[in-house]
């Protein structure tokens, strides 16, 4: 992701809900970026390409709720793979030459214990000392898995994005131009994902709903 100027970062309120706000360090940049506005879904989509454009971060910013409903929950229910591919297709997005981006600095870190869900999917023998066969690792039958842990980490700041994920057993174009000034202000909950542009494989997917 192209860097933000640290001098432009300011404290701003992040609207956790229509009635509650929390302070957040808000970054700013003005740049030519791919952008899509979808009024029927009350949704703005912004692409933040990485420097070599092999990867991109997309931000899906729904309009704030005025009736107390959860706009992220509504978006998740309406989001399909077909819609996502259509909305993020660069041939459908517009390159705006004057887009003002406000994006909060944030850091997310999650850990998931996967033994139970994997067991429910039928992966059971490997957790049983008498049935596990991990002889390919040490030539014996004395190894088994006690747990499988998935960890994910992501930090977005002025320098760009640092992201990593690992799973272990106790072991990661052509568009139409526009001169219209656009403001993309992510000062309320949004979804985001990072994907590989060539294959459209999603590498990270998450939401930011409240500063720490």
TrEMBL record:
A Pfam cross-reference name: Serpin
Source lineage: Eukaryota, Metazoa, Chordata, Craniata, Vertebrata
Serpin domain mapped to chain residues: 1-211
InterPro entries per UniProt: Serpin_CS, Serpin_dom, Serpin_fam, Serpin_sf, Serpin_sf_1, Serpin_sf_2
Entry similarity comment: Belongs to the serpin family. Ov-serpin subfamily.
Alphabetically ordered keywords of this record: Cytoplasm, Protease inhibitor, Serine protease inhibitor
Name of the protein described by the UniProt record: Serpin domain-containing protein
GO cellular component terms attached to this protein's record: cytoplasm; extracellular space
GO molecular function, one term: serine-type endopeptidase inhibitor activity
PROSITE patterns, per database record: SERPIN (PS00284)
Cytoplasm listed as a keyword: yes
PANTHER family (alphabetical): LEUKOCYTE ELASTASE INHIBITOR, SERINE PROTEASE INHIBITOR, SERPIN
Top-rank taxon, per record: Eukaryota
Subcellular location: Cytoplasm
Gene3D superfamilies: Alpha-1-antitrypsin, domain 1, Antithrombin, subunit I, domain 2
């Amino acid at each position: 992701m192209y860097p933000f100027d640290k001098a432009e970062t300011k404290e701003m309120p992040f609207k956790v809900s229509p009635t509650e706000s929390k302070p957040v360090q808000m970054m700013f940049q003005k740049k030519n970026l791919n952008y899509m506005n979808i009024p029927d879904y009350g949704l703005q989509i912004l692409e933040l390409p990485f420097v070599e454009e092999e990867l991109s971060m997309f931000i899906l910013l729904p309009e704030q709720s005025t009736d107390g409903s959860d706009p992220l929950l509504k978006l998740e229910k309406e989001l399909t793979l077909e819609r996502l591919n259509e909305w993020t297709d660069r041939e459908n997005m517009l390159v705006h030459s004057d887009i003002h981006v406000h994006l909060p600095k944030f850091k997310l870190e999650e850990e998931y214990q996967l033994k139970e869900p994997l067991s429910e999917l039928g992966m059971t023998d490997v957790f049983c000392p008498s049935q596990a066969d991990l002889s390919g690792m040490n030539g014996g039958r004395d190894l088994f898995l006690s747990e499988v842990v998935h960890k994910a980490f992501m930090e977005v700041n002025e320098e760009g994005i640092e992201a990593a994920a690992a799973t272990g057993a106790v072991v990661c174009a052509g568009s139409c131009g526009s001169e219209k000034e656009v403001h993309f202000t992510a000062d309320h909950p949004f979804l985001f994902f990072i994907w590989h542009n060539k294959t459209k494989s999603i590498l990270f997917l998450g939401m930011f709903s409240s500063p720490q």
